[in-house]
Amino acid sequence: MSIRLVDTYVAPFVAENEYAAIQPMVTAAHKMLTDRSGLGNAFLGWVDLPRDYDKEEYARIKAAAAKIQKQCDVFIVIGIGGSYLGARAVVEFLKSPLYNNLKKDTPDIYFSGCNISASNMQELLAICEGRDVCINVISKSGTTTEPAVAFRVFRELLEKKYGKEGARERIFVTTDRSRGTLKGFADKVGYETFVVPDDVGGRFSVLSAVGLLPIAVSGVDTDALMAGANAAREAYADPDITKNDCYKYAALRNILLRRGKTTEILVGYEPFMQMLAEWWKQLFGESEGKDGKGLFPASVIFSTDLHSLGQYIQDGMRNLFETVISVKDTGATQLIPNDPENIDGLNFLSGCDLNYVNGMAQQGTLFAHVDGGVPNVVLELADRSAYSLGYMLYFFEKACAISGYLLGVNPFDQPGVEAYKKNMFALLGKPGYEEQKAALDARLAK
Ligand code: PA5
C-alpha cells in the first residue's frame, strides 16, 4: 500500500456510529460503480484504464515522446482543465515545479491554452524565439475556446518557422477518437493523433494519452506511474471502509460535510505538490459541486501558507477540515549549517535535516489545528516515486466517484461550466447567440 489513512486527528470529530451508519451507503455506491448502474455510467473508462489502456497507443506515445525530446528545446502543451492539469501535476510532483530551470536532457515544458491572457501568450512566444518548438494540443471536444485560440497562435508560429511540412512533424494532437473538428482537421493535415477515450472525462484522463504524452516527454517513468495506479485499482476493491482507505476517505468527507464542514483544504508540505492540489481541486470541485451540493475544495502549501492562511484556519469560521498529504520519503536531504556566532539562535538545529524540521512543523500544525477545531485526515504517501503518485492519482479518482455517489450527484458531468461559455460567446458576438447577446447587453446598459 503506497497510501495509509491516519485517522488520529479526525477521530475526535467523528463518532464510531457514523462510520457504521454510512457503510450501507458506501456499499451501495460501490455497487453502482462496479455494476455500472450509477449516474454518469457512460464515463467509467478510467476505472480499469491502468490495466486496460491501449497498449499499441501507449507504445506510440513513448515513440512520440522520444521524437519530441530529440526535436525540440521547448514543448508547448495546449489544453485547459482536465486536458492539462494532470500532466502538469505529475511533472511538477515527480520532476520539480522548477523543472524548466533545472539542468536536464529533456525539453522545457510550458502550458498554454489554459487562460485567455495576452501577456501570458506573448511571454510564451518570446520564450520560443530562437528555440526549436513542438506542440501537443489536447482537447477532447476540440472546440474549447482557450486551447483552440492558443493552437491557432502556435500553429502559425510553427508553420512560419518550419513550413507546413516541417510543422506537421512537430504538432501532436490528443482528441476524441473519431468525432470533432480537431480530429477531422488533424487527419486532413496529417498530424499524429492520440485518443481521449470516449468513456473518460477530462478530469479523469491523466492516465490516458492526455496526461501520458507530456509526462513521458518530461522523462517520467510512465510504466511505474501506470503500475502504481493499477496496484491501487486492485487494492481498493472491497466496499468495507474498515479495509479500504480510499472508501474511508470518501466516507469521512461526507460525514464531515454533514457536520457542517463545507470546505476541504488539501494540505501539502512540499512546493512540488502545488499543481497536484490544482488537479485535485478540479477533480472534486467539478465532480461534486452541482445541484446546490458539494464540499468546496481549497488547498494550501505549508509552511508557506501558515504565514498567510494559517490564521484563518486556526481561528476563523469552523466550517473547514483538512486533508494532509504527508510524503514519508521525499528523496532529498538538506542539512542546516552551524553558525559559530548563532546570530539567529538556531544552533539547536545545526546539522538537522530539513525533512525533520518540516516533519515537526507538520506535527505541530496538526496538534494546533485539531485544538482549534479543525478535523485533519492524514494520507501518508510512501515516497515521491512515479509508482506512489500513480497510486495516489487513482486513490483520489475512485474516492471522488464514491464520494459523488454518496452525495447523490452525477460525478462525471459538468453542466455548470457551460454558463460562462454561453455568455462569453454571446458577448463576443458568436453567430447563433443573438438573443442571449441582446439580453446581456440590456443588463450591461442598466
Ligand atoms: O474535466 C473536464 O471535462 C473539463 O475540465 C475539460 O477537460 C475541459 O473543459 C477541457 O475540455 P476539452 O478537452 O474538451 O477542451
Radius of gyration, taken over Cα atoms and rounded to an integer in Å: 23 Å
Biggest sheet: strands side by side, in what order? 1-10-9-7-8
Distance between the termini: 59 Å
* Strand count: 10
Helix-and-strand structural type: alpha/beta
Q: Give the SSE string.
A: EHHHEHEHEHEHEHHHEHEHEHEHHH
State the helix count.
16
Classify the helix fraction into a percent range: 40-55%
Task: List unreliable stretches of 5+ residues.
Answer: none
Q: What spatial form do the alpha-carbon principal axes imply?
A: globular
Compute the average pLDDT. 97
Small molecules bound in the structure, each named once: 5-phosphoarabinonic acid
Strand content: 5-15%
Q: Which oligomerization state do the chains in this entry correspond to?
A: single chain
Largest β sheet strand count, sense and barrel closure:
5 strands, mixed
Could you walk me through the main structural features you see in this protein, from its secondary elements to its overall organization?
The protein has 16 helices and ten strands. The longest helix has 24 residues. Helix 4 links the parallel strand 2 and strand 3. The protein is globular and about 60 Å long. The strands form two sheets. It has a five-stranded mixed sheet with strand order 1-10-9-7-8, sandwiched between helices. Helices cover 48% and strands 14% of the residues. 43% of the residues are buried. By secondary structure, the protein is of the alpha/beta class. Helix 1 packs across helix 14 and helix 15 crosses helix 16. The site of 5-phosphoarabinonic acid has 14 residues, from loops.
